[in-house]
Design brief:
Layout (H helix, E strand, L loop, with lengths): L47 H6 L7 H14 L15 H10 L4 E4 L6 H7 L7 E5 L14 H10 L5 E5 L4 E5 L6 H4 L1 E3 L1 H5 L10 E3 L1 H4 L4 E5 L6 H13 L1 E4 L2 E4 L5 E6 L1 H5 L6 H5 L3 E4 L6 H11 L9 E2 L3 H14 L13 H22 L3 E2 L10 H4 L13 H20 L2 H9 L6 E4 L10 H5 L3 H8 L5 H17 L4 E5 L2 E5 L1
Parallel strand pairs: 1-10, 1-11, 4-7, 7-10, 12-13
Antiparallel strand pairs: 2-3, 5-6, 8-9, 14-16, 15-16
Helix pairs in contact: 12-13, 12-14, 13-14, 13-16, 16-20, 19-20
Bound molecules: zinc ion.
The site of zinc ion (ZN) has 8 residues, from α5.
Length: about 500
Amino acid sequence: MGFLFGGKKKTGESAPVAIAKTPAMTPPVVTRTDNVGSPAGAGKPKTIGELKASGYKTLPIREEMRRNLTALIKAKKPIFSGIIGYDNTVIPQVENAVLSGQNIIFLGERGQAKSRVMRLLIGLLDEYVPVIRGCEINDNPLSPICKSCREKVAKDGDNTEITWLSRQDRYGEKLATPDTTIADLIGDVDPIKVAEGRYLSDELTMHYGIIPRTNRGIFCINELPDLAERLQVGLFNLLEEADIQIKGYRVRLPLDILLVASANPEDYTSRGRIITPLKDRFGSQIRTHYPVTIKDEISIVEQEWQRFDDGDMKYYVPDFIKEIIAEITHQARRSPDIGQRSGVSVRVSIANMETVVANAVRRAVTLGEKLAVPRVTDLPYIIASTTGKVEMEGFEEKNEQKIIDDLTKRATLMVFNKYFQFDEIEPIVRQFNGGFNVETSESMSAKQYLRYLKEIPGMAKGVKKMTDAETPEIVASVIEFVLEGAHLNKRLNKTRVDGKTIYKK
Ligand SMILES: [Zn+2]
């Protein structure tokens, strides 16, 4: 763990951040449908004959990914861009799994970027690969497996049309639920085709499920332990024997698929949730984790949180506010009051950041201020963005509000004590001896705080320590942080009346 917040940090060093619209998350992955009409074929062979003449060699998916990964490593190019904090843990293991051609299962609690890592694996595929035009299961033009394509090639030979499939279209994903069926995953017989007079045993009556449709691609199954046992058996047979029984008919499907799965570690290791032979098919079991450092947690929040353009109004989030938000999540991950089985996602930090900024924006709009800066008094609002994402334990004594308040206090104290020594707050506290008190509130304008710089000896110095900015909104936020820090160090009392906070001795 690195040394994160050493030395003097100035929250006002950079100008208030202009608001940039950035996509918050990667776009949703569309599981592929048919490859008909792909526009990718420009300049590429259009028939099997042209493909053969071009000397093109098709590779099994594992060899293709392995070759591309090796090239990326050699070129020192990033393989999983946007993934923070996994450089020395998860990523080398994923690379080893790809280099060894193994199916992968990711074990981790929620919000550990499992899905994102899985989706980024498509970056290891060729940009385009040739498939027989119109094939539902992306048949390799040089060795088709479906009956329809085999018949087509037998009839049209080298004139058989091909098309080019992009890497984005070679990814399929399914969330396992107890009601997932064989038809969803592998396929079913198609009653319409049967009605057309075909024999039921004829493979042409098959309506393919998502796995065959991801042939020559990466198929990801989330929450694998939720898959019914007979489906696990079906999946195993498909991988092991390359064939599958559907409604009593045996269909041979030698698919070429990299299987990736995810699971909560407790579900995966609990007896009976996964059949052993299927477990054995995952050569690599990779444990994901939450950001180890506050710095990584903040980097992820900064990458992901949703920003809006409010025109003239800007916002600025002081570093200590970011640190408190990240620290609240880290505290929650160790708290006995919070269920650790499903974990505390990084999404809690992201949503809490959005919430405190929203409250600052609401205040700025209400008061007609041009700069929205979150304050300590905005933190209680994170209850809305936290409670739905964590599981509370032991309700009988503590309610949710109390649990989150306690986490917030602990986090604020820890961050404050990183910046301030005891003797630095002493002159500030001394001012309160003769009955002096200070009022703060999330709805008080920033300018109203500025008088405390003059009235409280030591306050100006304390603010200076945190920021060079003289912008009232930033100064007000720091003043609150200092007062709250003195209170949490048991140097000042605090009472809350009608939405106002009074600090006194
Ligand atoms: Zn086919």
